[in-house]
Design a protein that fits this description.
46% helix; 9 helices; 277 residues; binds nicotinamide-adenine-dinucleotide; Rossmann fold; 7-stranded parallel β-sheet; alpha/beta; 7 strands
Length: 277
């Protein structure tokens, strides 16, 4: 397969024999990333609070790649027992773990003065406690097996550049990047790399970008709901809409040996909106 063909299809063997787990795999970016890891040869554990959509992701992956190995597990990432059980089940089935991608996330869009405290608290729980619990479970397994590993926190460009009416999202997405840096320092001696990926706006398949969220964004920028996607595209340097597969490609790269000396870093995949200095 030529290099450009490989990039288009995502089919490669960069992650052959690797065992991965993706949280939030039932929808949007988590689903795209799980499919991308699988196309790169990994077996993939699919964790999500929504059982039906997680099974759907598994079926989509298997339809595309009949030999793919997946395991769908219903798991609330904010629940310590759920997370421990899920990683225990994966360990039992596959005997180890090489990759964790934290992607289960929520984005309550409110102005500061309107943000209910329960929405703030639930965003901290999913976006921070959920990332922490999954990383803790994965790190314990990776340290014990002694083969290194890769942990990716899916943050956001909002983790680097605050956006309006997004208090809880801004705080938690910045927190995810900083947690990853600390974990990289702690886990480096075990050969475990920890990095963040900051996607730009990805509308494809996202439940965050539902009708209400699009309406809130339109209001924020004084445009019509149908103008929201073209508006965000116009803000990118590349003038293109980012797709789930673009983010999956970035994750596959970061988890592969091609990135073997990259840890504690933040890779921005946003078609050129936020320039990291
Ligand atoms: N779509 C974007 O524009 C965009 C941009 C930057 C970053 N992100 C990040 O990517 C990730 C996925 O976003 P998306 O747009 O695909 O959203 P999505 O809502 O489509 O997917 C999120 C998934 O997380 C699951 N989830 C929510 N709470 C959970 C919990 N407590 N336990 C387990 N699973 C839970 C949901 O069921 C859902 O399947 C999030 O972390 C988000 O911050 C998204």
């Amino acid at each position: 397969m030529s290099g450009s063909e490989e990039l288009r299809t995502g089919q490669c063997d960069d992650l052959k024999d690797k065992r991965a787990v993706v949280t939030g795999a039932g929808s949007g970016l988590g689903r795209s990333i799980a499919a991308g890891l699988s196309r790169a040869g990994a077996t993939v554990g699919l964790l999500d609070i929504d059982a039906e959509s997680t099974e759907e992701t598994s079926a989509i992956i298997k339809k595309e790649q009949p030999i793919a190995q997946t395991m769908a597990i219903t798991c609330d990432v904010t629940n310590e027992t759920d997370v421990e059980k899920a990683f225990g089940a994966l360990l039992k089935k596959w005997g180890g773990l090489d990759i964790l991608v934290n992607a289960a996330g929520v984005a309550p869009a409110y102005r500061l003065v309107d943000l209910p405290v329960d929405k703030w608290r639930s965003a901290l729980e999913v976006n921070l406690t959920g990332y922490f619990l999954a990383a803790r479970a994965a790190a314990k397994i990776m340290i014990k097996q002694g083969n290194g590993g890769s942990i990716i926190n899916i943050s956001s460009k909002s983790g680097l550049q605050a956006s309006k009416d997004n208090t809880a999202y801004n705080a938690t997405k910045a927190g995810e990047i900083h947690m990853a840096r600390g974990w990289a320092l702690e886990l480096g001696e075990y050969g475990i790399r920890v990095n963040s990926i900051c996607p730009g706006n990805v509308f494809e398949g996202s439940k965050i970008w539902d009708r209400e969220y699009i309406k809130a964004s339109a209001k924020k920028y004084g445009i019509k709901p149908e103008e929201v996607i073209p508006y965000y595209v116009s803000r990118t340097a590349l003038k293109c809409e980012i797709k789930g597969r673009d983010i999956a490609n970035a994750v596959v790269f970061m988890c592969s040996d091609k990135a073997s000396t990259i840890t504690g870093q933040t890779l921005v995949a946003d078609a050129g909106q936020v320039m990291v200095r």
